[in-house]
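Cross-posted from the bioinformatics board.
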Amino acid sequence: MSEKVLMKGNEAIAEAAISCGCRHYFGYPITPQTEIAAYMAKRMPKIGGTFLQAESEIAAVNMVIGAASAGVRVMTSSSSPGVSLKSEGISYMAGCDLPALIVNVQRGGPGLGGIQPSQSDYFQATRGGGHGDYHLLVLAPASVQEMAAMTVRAFDLADKYRMPCMLLADGTMGQMMEPVELGESTGGTVDKPWALTGTGMKRPHNIINSLSLTPDELERWNVDRYERYAKIERDEPMYEEYLCDDAEIVVVGFGIAARVAKNAVNAARAEGIKAGMFRPITLWPFPKKAMFERAKTAGAFISVELSMGQMIEDIELAIRCTRPVTLCSRVGGMIPSPAEVKKSIEDAHEKLEGRN
Amino acid sequence: MTKNILIAGFGGQGVLFTGKFLAYAALLEDRQLSWLPSYGPEMRGGTCNCSVIISDEPVGSPIVTEPDILIAMNRPSLDKFEKAVVPGGEIYIDSSLVDRKPERTDVKVYSLPATALSTEKGFDGIANMILLGAVIEKSGVIDKSSIPAAMSKVVSAKHKDLYDYNIKAIELGCESI
């Protein structure tokens, strides 16, 4: 095991990407994720990699398309407004079935918004974001250790399913420092026979393209892709449960919201309220099955989000509205305090008691 | 045991550095910790603060809203965060820059003219480390024996002079409080 070091979440993403074989980074600076680009700028030239600060987010994402087409591990990172700019390219990547990592260290929106933490890009991340029928695999880390681990996992999943993956973090996760243990370098040597590596006059040309003017062909591409998505929805959901087994109230949160929720759950437990926390780690695929099962034992759910209420819709869908779901949220760069979440738990508890 | 520490002052006073030092000391003591800076459009002269949590349990929220220890390096920081300190908590003040006493009577208050001392004793620019010495002495939040190793994590080996300079400033703070 390697030594524990202190790192910012943003730096942990960059180092983890390098450790699993990413040698190509294209980006454009934006708060609060610029440390990723800065780290890559420092490290890539020393290890024979490529760091390129593009002239814009749009240019950067198109460079990612090029590198991914050539079969190398490649990533870009940005924050909310920058990810909107990249969305066209991300849709093309999905249409071309290209693996790559896109990191979104979210800030408040819409528009230029602010620079403080937010989770209001949940819909954008989990519903695709760009045009057309597609999904991204979306991972939501809740510690600096997970920022590193999820980066490696995202690259592996991207290669496994030939699709773009997104790491959805927020300003707090990017800026905070925690002890982190970086794994051994894994190299990321996945066979990619589809990549554009030159035929050497020995094989037919590979073609990477999202354009088809033949409707039945384009339909088939979409249907094939959704068969892969169905497999992902079955095999890849990840989540963490904390004190859920006997919980009457289950607080659901990801990333920083889950950290706050955990404090609130402990505080509520100290006062005798049976509260628990459910933390989705993959936001797409959303851990629907596990949450539906949990609704059989829990009386009510609370969605803690740094948005006006986006994930709450997935909770309601997952549990098929069999239990009440309330929202506890702050937006614009504000973060709900453990006391605010605890108040929501108490309110939900009171309503449950009243009904019984 | 969990200690929620909030360090606040002007940008340029070494608020983040002070927090980083505590974080490294906690890491070396094999404790759980988090370090979270304010990252607004601050610059030298603007307000700046930093949340550090040191615990024996995994850290939940990294945001310190109710500090056990407040280190107020200027007047606006005391004005803003005095109310948030938990009853029985500790407030450390650079009394050279804070021209009032805390109103709270249910907390322990430690005042040290850190900035004046730094000028007087030849530690220009590192009043933060003098005040930190007072915190370490009185709160015991980190062990004194962790100071040298933690310092070598935050000051590069190339700058041996800075290493000694900072260590001595902490010692001065320990002795002066």
